[in-house]
Amino acid sequence: MKRAATIFMFILLSAGVFAQVRTDGPVVAIDTKGMTVLLEARGGEPLRYLYIGERLDSADVGAVPAAGAIRMDAYPAYGQGNIRSDALAVTHWDGNMSTEMAVSSVSIENSEDASTACILLKDRIYDFYVKVFYKAFLDADMVETWTELTSLEKKPVLLRRFDSAFLPLRTGNVWASHLYGSWANEGRLVQEPLERGTLLIENKDGVRNSQTSHSEIMFSLDGKPLENAGTVLGAALCYSGNFRLEVVTDDSDYHKFYAGICPDNSSVSLGRGESFRTPELAFTVSGEGLGGASRNFHDWARAHRLAHGDRERKILLNSWEGVYFDVNESGMAEMMSEIAGMGGELFVMDDGWFGEKYPRVRDRSSLGDWKVDRNKLPHGLGWLVDEADRNGIGFGIWIEPEMTNTVSELYEAHPDWIINAPGRDVVQGRGGTQAVLDLGNPAVQDYVFGIVDGLMKECPGIDYIKWDANMSVSSHGSSWLPADRQSELNIRYHQGFAAVCERIRAAYPDITIQACASGGGRANYGVLPWFDEFWVSDNTDALQRIYMQWGTSYFFPAIAMASHISAVPNHTVGRVTPLKFRIDVAMGGRLGLELQPRDMTDAEKMQCRQAIADYKKVRPVVQFGDLYRLVSPYDGLGVASLMYCSKDKSQAVFYWYRTENFYDSHLPRVKMAGLDPDRMYTVYELDRIGESALPFEGRSFSGAFLMSSGLEMPGGFSGRLGGYSSRVLHLVAEPR
């Protein structure tokens, strides 16, 4: 590859895309509607950042160096002038552990929705190359960056670290907002200042990479995080496997943020002519605080990262908490009839429907044997699909295709298909018998694709798949990978996962697929291009869901968050909350039900019927509108509140939840946001339960008043509500 001695080029990527040759310097400028990234790409020298921040006018671009540019390597490599922290670490064919990358060329590619800059770097000595990509979207305030590493060295090289990106953040009063959790407690928010030392956020589960820590983070650059003010840089690593986010704060003027695949026990060997592509890091800069960054993520996700992001999600009943493994034909038919009668649009049959030699009656057998249990379902799946159709609803089904049980026909036939260290006892998970299939193996990929393909060919009317994954990679070993590439197991697994998902989507582009992984274990943008939504948590308790859905909303839109009305006492925490409270919380995401309708009273069914009808009125606003978080449950004020506004500001949906129940507590009056100050909005309450109408029911108020004053919510203790008060208001703008 020929290395250019000097590059004199100024490239602007924006809604009005153009390239301009400049003689005053080799600057690459990457613009979205709200932010600018400036790079110095001088031939023969390292690629360097000059500026990352809110969008610059063209006149200011040239002045950045005089104002004080960043001038830090955009993709720092280990070993030559940099031995403290790095994004890239390579052992070359002769054992040399140092790498020194310099700019070779710059190119630009335009498409209908984005412009992409590719900067080619070459090691000064070795035939080792890195392409650094920056993709700016024309319809979303987001940049994606990633790298492609290629070796033309005479013998294999070893990649020891291979981050997707490095971003410098000016030292100051910088705070990080990120998510943590556990099973039944996913998506919890933590906010902390960046202090001296290292903030390390990582996941090494191997399969479920968002149940503990998340691969998304926001940095408030000028003080403690605020919802609607302050400059925020938000970033999300789009990867389904083990990851590492690292913020190094030392004695320099910059916090150093690295993001990529976790390299622990996952080094990659590259032979001559081989390449490795890192996952994308998507990042945005907003001057409108955390909320502005969230809205940028939501717009980008619906347009570019979420399967069918422009399609309304159906209201469904899932059978799991209603019957667990007690699946049978008459019971499924009854549940279909019930959800159809309440106005629902889809029924999903969960675990417990399969297994011939080993019937699936509990969680210790049958995974891998995806054949209908005819004792439970004598007429097969086709009859159920037809029954759903007779009820005027869609039919969905649960599968866990990446897993098997050691008590299964699949394991008996292919014990070599599981992930486990050679010569070791099989490490078994859920039920004492579960194991993970080795998706790096092409034969396993064919098998997993065949599960979906077989179901769809047998029953083309299946409308929805709930795709689960309930075990981590718990033993390191692949019978398919050669001995000298065992370190690549985790990476190969997720390459295989992506390959299977691509095949499924190519064959069945219209089906809706939910990502479930022991609850919220796969809420990440590495999965969502193939999935329509994710299960936020196995914990359906409405109070705890307020906290989990709040945190999750920092990065993910409501259309992707499955939120269900469940029975009480709650099956996870045992809490008893009123049906209205459970409905109002579930209406903040993709509404569904997770219970046995047979156990409901007629009054409860009627209330759900009304709630479903109300949700349908506002579904477009919730699923496609702009989110404004108003009062955080994490602030301990006794209330949580948020709202969604349609893009044209003609409608809004306002949510108010009482989260703490104490006498002599004084709840704040909530100011709204996102409305048109010059328009009048008429207020209607949704999910009313027969109480007296609110004083402002049917009254009109200006957007300016609602945003400066708000409406007083009655938060007193009600015997019917048990202290768990909640309100959902529909705001409709009067015609202009």
Query: Helix amount, in percent?
Result: 10-25%
Rg over CA atoms: 27 Å
Number of helices: 13
Tell me the count of domains. Answer: 3
Per CATH, the class of the largest domain reads Alpha Beta
CATH homologous superfamily of the largest domain - what is it?
Answer: Aldolase class I
Average pLDDT number: 94
Q: Give the strand tally.
A: 38
Question: Which topology of the largest domain does CATH recognise?
Answer: TIM Barrel
Strand content: 25-35%
Measure the end-to-end span.
61 Å
In this structure, how is the largest beta sheet organized?
10 strands, antiparallel
Describe the global form: globular
CATH architecture of the largest domain: Alpha-Beta Barrel
Write a structural description.
This protein is of the alpha+beta class. It has three domains: about 75-305, alpha-galactosidase from lactobacil brevis (Beta-galactosidase, Chain A, domain 5, Distorted Sandwich); about 315-620, TIM Barrel (Alpha-Beta Barrel); about 630-735, Immunoglobulin-like (Sandwich). Helices cover about 20% and strands about 30% of the residues. Helix 8 (about 440-460) packs parallel to helix 9.
